[in-house]
Amino acid sequence: TVLSNETRTVVSPGRIELGVGAVDTVGDHAARYGDTALVVATEQIFEFHGDTVVDRLDAAGVEAVVYTDVRPDPTVENIEAAHDLYERNDCDLIVTLGGGSSIDTGKGVGILAANDGSIRDFGVDRAGYEGVPNPSPPLIAVNTTAGTGSEATRSVVVSDESTSTKFLIVSANVVPDVAIEDPELTVSLPKSHTAFTGIDALTHAIEAYVSVKSYSVPDGYAEQAMERIARSLPVAWANGDNLDARADVMVGQLQAGQAFTNASVALVHGLARPLGAQLHIPHGLANGLILPYVVDFSSMAAPEKYAEIARILGVADAHTPTREAADAAAEGVLRLCRDVDLTGYLDDFGEVPSRDDYLSVVDEMTQDAIDSGSPDNNPRKPTRDEIADLYTTIYDDA
Ligand code: NAD
Predict the structure, then answer these.
(1) Which atom of ligand 1 lies closest to the CA of 257?
(2) Does the beta carbon of 101 sit less than 6 angstroms from any atom of ligand 1?
(3) Which of 70, 128, 204, 214 has the smallest C-beta neighbourhood within 10 Å, fewest atoms?
(4) Which of 164, 186, 208 is the last residue before a domain boundary?
(5) What is the CATH number for 207?
(6) Are residues 171 and 253 in the same domain?
(7) Is the dihedral of CA 335, 340, 344, 348 positive or negative?
(8) Three-class DSSP category at 200
């Protein structure tokens, strides 16, 4: 896409602190913004790294009010309870510690602190895209997974337990002011979540790259993200202490977040939210189950892009004819998923329903996927029946 006759808005966190030791900057950044920080984390991640963050806030003279009840795939109730704590303690900034679940909870608190209404009101199904009127209070995201890229995105994903669905909020008003990416914090990430979050990032990069909304800026982020994740995710997975590999994947997932938030996600994400909600599996695992099938389904519609993906994933080279290379892209994705034993974790993390029970909700999932709007960004737009077929095939092969 050329930009000589059109304009684009590129969103980005205000500042990004990168590298081993980057977490040391959290206190000084917080002190630029206020006196009392709501620190939002899961219990598990707070046990690992909570003292590191609270000590640095303390040293900078910033009081920490701590909320550690964030559930992975955070809920409406998480956001409401954390917001309540924020207001009761007169907080003036938010510090999230953790991956997408902590960051999205913090973003949700920011929305409620600056706007009237309940969090459900800001979902894209009700408010549309860019439907959050006022900017959030300052938000510093200390990232610990690699990952969702949420520290660089305008998205918030919230689980609504009353309907067993996840809804999406999208607004430039929630992009964090500071993103802190310290690879040392990801060393404690277990093998399973290293695989899930890394494949989530790969999915972001691929979806942004092939999206009908992509253009030069997100394409550049996406290409680099795919390269980093392909070369370093298997290394970080096999040896979690390898800081070079952890750092490479962390930068890759950041770039993948920057790619998709400035282009869009596409069919995989449309399918993944309903699937994840039904099977109760982590978001990255849901993406990874779907990704090879959607790449296979879509490659004919954007052969140049999929051929490049295949080259980056090492299943084609510069001499492979475009069509042949595009056809190989799905194999490249599958190989990377196998390298990190992605589906090996399905029994540990999922509650897989019987085939009959699953088939009984395929129609509902298909409608949910269509309603998300994401399939419209796919280079090959699926029909309703094709989406239902993809859901059935994914279950049968898993
Ligand atoms: P997560 O934040 O849910 O964390 C997964 C698990 O790993 C949790 O139990 C957590 O406590 C633990 N954990 C996290 N970091 C750890 C560490 N360094 N050491 C040990 N344990 C650690 O995982 P995630 O994949 O980063 O986030 C998933 C959520 O993000 C989902 O709700 C998903 O829908 C959402 N998401 C948001 C965006 C966005 O742009 N807002 C994008 C993609 C996904």
Answers:
(1) 40
(2) yes
(3) 128
(4) 186
(5) 1.20.1090.10
(6) no
(7) negative
(8) helix
Integer Cα distance of 30 and 35 in angstroms: 8
Is 144 close to ligand 1, i.e. is its CB under 6 Å away? yes
Strand (E) positions, the chain? 15-18, 36-41, 63-67, 93-98, 139-143, 155-160, 165-170, 178-181
- Output the CA 2–ligand 1 centroid distance in Å: 35
Q: How confident is the model at residue 1 (pLDDT cuts 50, 70, 90)?
A: low
Residue 358 CB neighbours (<10 A): 19
Indicate the range of 97-106, 175-184, 274-283, 297-306 predicted with least confidence: 274-283
**So what's the ipTM on this one?**
0.99
Q: How many domains does the chain have?
A: 2
Ligand 1 pocket mutation, candidates 283, 290, 342, 372, criterion most atoms within 8 A of CB = 283
User: Is 313 within a domain?
Assistant: yes
Tens-digit pLDDT profile for residues 342-384: 988 888 887 888 899 999 999 999 998 998 889 999 999 999 9
Q: For residue 136, with 0-12 CB atoms within 10 Å meaning exposed, 13-18 middle and 19 or more buried, which class applies?
A: buried
Ligand 1 binding pocket mutation candidate from 68, 71, 144, 206 (most atoms within 8 A of CB): 144
Q: Which of 140, 162, 186 is the last residue of a domain?
A: 186
- Give the structural domain span for 195: 191-397
User: What pLDDT does 294 receive?
Assistant: 98
In a shared domain, residues 160 and 254: no
Q: Which atom of ligand 1 is nearest to the CA of 102?
A: 2
**Ligand 1 binding pocket includes 154 (Cβ within 6 Å):** no
